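Running co-folding for 5'-O-[(L-methionyl)-sulphamoyl]adenosine.
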Amino acid sequence: MANRKFYITTPIYYPNDIPHIGHAYTTIAADVLARWHKLKGDKVWFLTGTDEHGKKIQNAAEKKGKSPKEFVDDLIPKFKDAWKKLNIEYSRFIRTTDRDHEKKVQEILNKVYDNGDIYLGKYEGYYCTACEAYYTEKDLENGCCPIHKTKVDLLKEPSYFFKLGKYQKQLLELYKKNSEFISPKNRKLEIINRIKEGLDDLSISRTSFDWGIPLPFDKKHVCYVWFDALLNYYSGANDFWPADIHLVGKDILWFHVVIWPAMLLSAGIKLPKKIFAHGWWTFDKEKISKSRGKVINVDDLVSIAGVDSARYFLFRETPFGEDGDFSEQALIDRHNNELADKLGNLVSRVAALAEKYGIQKTENRLLKKLKLKEIEKHFEKYEIDRALNEIFAFIDVCNEYVQSKKPWETHDKKVLYELADSIREIAKLLFPFIPETSEKIAKQFRTDKIKKDEILFKKV
Ligand code: MSP
């Protein structure tokens, strides 16, 4: 099924600090999937960007003595540089301060208002600025935000509300009818139970600060940052709407599977096909935290063993969708034992032998052991770790083949052809994961005059 459209998004990140491993993880995952679909011949739109309005950014800017816009303008290049370092090929980097986005948000607000789904009221309750989220008394732990463990604010201000409660039934029906809407499936039950407990209307405007998009029907209010942010997927869609998949972390699943579809239902816009929640990374078994110095920035990540080893590690270490623990040693071990010893060795041995003895075209029986269908299926189901495992299982098969056929003794050109041809296929399949290495391999094996190049992975 070639030439389909494929539209994938990452969450848009708060530019209150430079990006770390958590942001990198989603962005690399989206890049792997986007590259895979491009290989398949699909027309791909890959959207990422930054979530720039709201109190959290305003506070961070104030701390630095800058205006919010100056503050975010200084940080955006850091995000773009990080993605460049990680070889992320996005289609657009959207900022919620982009003019076209702001216009679209106001347009949708008007539409939802005209549909009778927005009314004026008063919000009295708790708010965690670090989460940019509302909490009820029973959500709190000792009066603190359950995620950040910090004090929440008690708000009391006039606010416009979105009639989220009205969509309770439709949302439950959506999950039932479209059983893959929330992925992985094991995250669904919690959402359903929470909705069944009751779905309150959502406060969607604030008057106590001004760093946000003004409501078009009442300029004294600025739009709630999540209502603004979620709409980036639509305003930045470039005719690709509806999205095939929104990749998000498990912590923000609720916003994406409850608030977002309700907004779209209200505005009469098609729904995205799937929301996929991945797990969280810890660092040396501890929660990632800037203040406690437990953080891996993109520069740190890349400096350990190079960009491809970082990209590889994140999808080899943990099933996509589950939590994982990052440690420098674990990355180095995989770099040395898998990338250098398995992939690197295979490529350099075969390239050297093929260069020396030549190859002779024949039926490639070795390649039949590659489980291509399974790999494709894994990609279709967003099981990217399993796709990667399957490719490496074939690399093992190839290494065993070299061992058992001993082409350095036999000089068998046909065996060397089978190996070289299989390596070409491996390079192609690895391209989404480790594009730089994949190109280095492809270069050596491009024509039948194979030439060994420098080694792919120097051991760390
Ligand atoms: N701005 C919102 C998203 C709006 S999308 C319409 C936001 N931004 S964020 O910068 O705080 O986080 C973005 C993503 O990073 C989330 O998906 C979150 O799950 C992910 N991660 C942050 N820390 C993480 C880990 N330690 N591990 C894995 N992902 C983590 O939320």
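Result summary
The chain has a mean pLDDT of 96.
The chain has two domains: 5-278, 327-444.
Job closed.
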